[in-house]
């Protein structure tokens, strides 16, 4: 990272508010009512839909970006304009079952300063062994 990005990011946080902060950042399986329904750090690859939720404070008028990375390479970015002192945003990614491993979302400000990094382990779905069938109970003779 260039030193100018570090200085610009620090100035953004100082100029924006002494309270500028990422108060929550997490992977979740769904968003309902603008809130994450759960927090996950690991999911099996039979789940292909994942969200990343972020709540920031003190950054009104600025922007943040969710940068999704796999194997150290950016795969998807979404930038959000922050419209109030407390602002919640989320991005969504459809993952394919063949791309298992460590996924990261890096939250950066408009100067490229890293505000938060979270990791999701996307693994092969567990296969369950077929249930053994119980021996059939002897049937009772029919009573006429």
Question: Could you list some keywords that capture this structure?
Answer:
144 residues, mainly beta, Immunoglobulin-like, 5-stranded mixed β-sheet, 10% helix, 48% strand, globular, disordered N terminus, disordered C terminus
Task: Describe the protein.
The protein is built from one helix and ten strands. The chain is mostly beta strands and 144 residues long. It has a single domain (3-123), classed as Macroglobulin (MG2) domain (Immunoglobulin-like). It is globular, with a radius of gyration of 23 Å. The chain has one helix spanning 3-16; strands spanning 21-28, 31-32, 35-36, 42-44, 49-57, 63-70, 73-81, 86-94, 101-109, 114-123.
In short:
By secondary structure, this protein is mainly beta. Helix content is 10%, strand content 48%.
List the helices and strands and how they pair.
Layout: H1 3-16, E1 21-28, E2 31-32, E3 35-36, E4 42-44, E5 49-57, E6 63-70, E7 73-81, E8 86-94, E9 101-109, E10 114-123
Parallel strand pairs: 4-10
Antiparallel strand pairs: 1-5, 2-3, 5-8, 6-7, 6-9, 9-10
CATH superfamily: Macroglobulin (MG2) domain
Mean pLDDT: 83
Can you tell me the CATH architecture? Sandwich
Structural class: mainly beta
How far apart are the termini?
Answer: 88 Å
Biggest β-sheet: strands ordered side by side in the sheet = 4-10-9-6-7
Count of individual domains: 1
User: SSE order, as H and E?
Assistant: HEEEEEEEEEE
Unreliable segments of 5+ consecutive residues: 3-8, 13-18, 128-144
Helix content: under 10%
CATH topology: Immunoglobulin-like
The coarse overall form would be globular
Instruction: Tally the beta strands.
Output: 10
Q: Number of helical runs?
A: 1
CATH class value: Mainly Beta
Largest sheet: 5 strands, mixed
Task: Please tell me how large the radius of gyration is.
Answer: 23 Å
Approximately how much beta-strand content do the residues carry? over 45%
């Amino acid at each position: 990272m260039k030193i100018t990005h570090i200085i610009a990011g620090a100035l953004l946080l100082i100029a924006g508010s002494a309270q500028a902060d990422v108060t929550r950042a997490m992977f979740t399986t769904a968003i309902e009512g603008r809130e994450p329904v759960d927090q996950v750090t690991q999911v099996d690859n039979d789940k292909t839909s994942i969200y990343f939720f972020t709540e920031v404070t003190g950054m009104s008028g600025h922007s943040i970006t969710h940068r999704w990375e796999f194997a150290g390479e950016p795969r998807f970015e979404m930038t959000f304009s922050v419209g109030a002192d407390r602002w919640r945003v989320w991005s969504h990614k459809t993952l394919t079952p063949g791309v298992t491993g460590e996924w990261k979302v890096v939250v950066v400000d408009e100067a490229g300063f890293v505000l938060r990094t979270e990791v999701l382990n996307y693994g092969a779905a567990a296969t369950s062994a077929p249930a053994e069938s119980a021996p059939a109970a002897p049937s009772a003779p029919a009573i006429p």
